[in-house]
Amino acid sequence: MAKLSRGTVKDFPGFDARSDAEALRKAMKGLGTDEDAIVKILTGRSNAQRQQIAAAFKTLFGRDLVDDLKSELTGKFETLMVALMRPARHFDAHELKYALKGAGTNEKVLTEILASRTTAELQNIKQVYLEEYESNLEDHVTGDTTGYYQRMLVVLVQANRDPDGRIDEGLVEQDAQALFKAGELKWGTDEEKFITILGTRSVSHLRKVFDKYMTISGFQIEETIDRETSGDLEKLLLAIVKCVRSVPGYFAESLFYAMKGAGTDDDTLIRIMVSRSEIDLLDIRHEFRKNFAKSLHHMIQKDTSGDFRKALLLLCGGDDE
């Protein structure tokens, strides 16, 4: 049975790829560009429909739609429109590739994607990565990271997390005790224990472990991770815990901090809004409203401007004020 999408972007009823392709060509032809028309079409169609528009565009005009968008648009608005055009199954692999490319590694992207995706999604990412870039994701990850952070990423890349099933209360107790001994009760920290348990147990099992951990230790697992680890490993372990508790909650928080304070982390904003628009953006909006006492729509409105803002608000959908 098809899983009900909790996305804000759905297939456009009465979709006509040719007429959309013609409207986009008209919007970009000659002097000036009709950004409004571009925004309306690209945010109002599903990713699968955008791929059909790109094919129709090439058939009708012998031109590449993405190349035309790149030459007509600029800045973050261009980045957002091009991201919307990327085939959905290629999106994560592409983001990871660029996070691992050249000098410096973008740990934020590695952490966000590898901590939040399901086992099936991770398997797909690895396959696409291999097809597109003719290398193993794991090899690139190990080549670009070090220490326990690297080991935790490698465990996640295996995409071997236990499936959700019957909960073994004995193992819940055992894991909670093991984490307590590996952290709070130990001088120094046994990072390996955290990596194994957080990287391989099922989501429903881990939720029980976190509850049991609180009972045994008097601490939330997040507090212990905060005290016992640091740097990229700490951020990754916390991201995994947050995603176990609630994936939409994790993304709501990431969006909030991408816009809070001076300056906006546009890359994170674009990555989350595009990658979750057909999956769970409605749930992310709900969590955002619940946790930050304002709507995602309101914060985007306040924090961005121009065509970039217009496009993000359309992806966001409604206002939950």
From TrEMBL:
GO molecular function, one term: calcium-dependent phospholipid binding
The keyword Acetylation belongs to this UniProt entry's keyword annotation: no
Protein family: Belongs to the annexin family.
Family matches, as InterPro entries: Annexin (IPR001464), Annexin_repeat (IPR018502), Annexin_repeat_CS (IPR018252), Annexin_sf (IPR037104), ANX5 (IPR002392)
One term under GO cellular component: external side of plasma membrane
PANTHER family (UniProt xref): ANNEXIN, ANNEXIN A5
A single GO BP: calcium ion homeostasis
Keywords per UniProt: Annexin, Calcium, Calcium/phospholipid-binding, Repeat
Keyword Cell cycle appears in the UniProt entry: no
Domain description: A pair of annexin repeats may form one binding site for calcium and phospholipid.
Taxonomic lineage: Eukaryota, Metazoa, Chordata, Craniata, Vertebrata
Name of the protein in question: Annexin
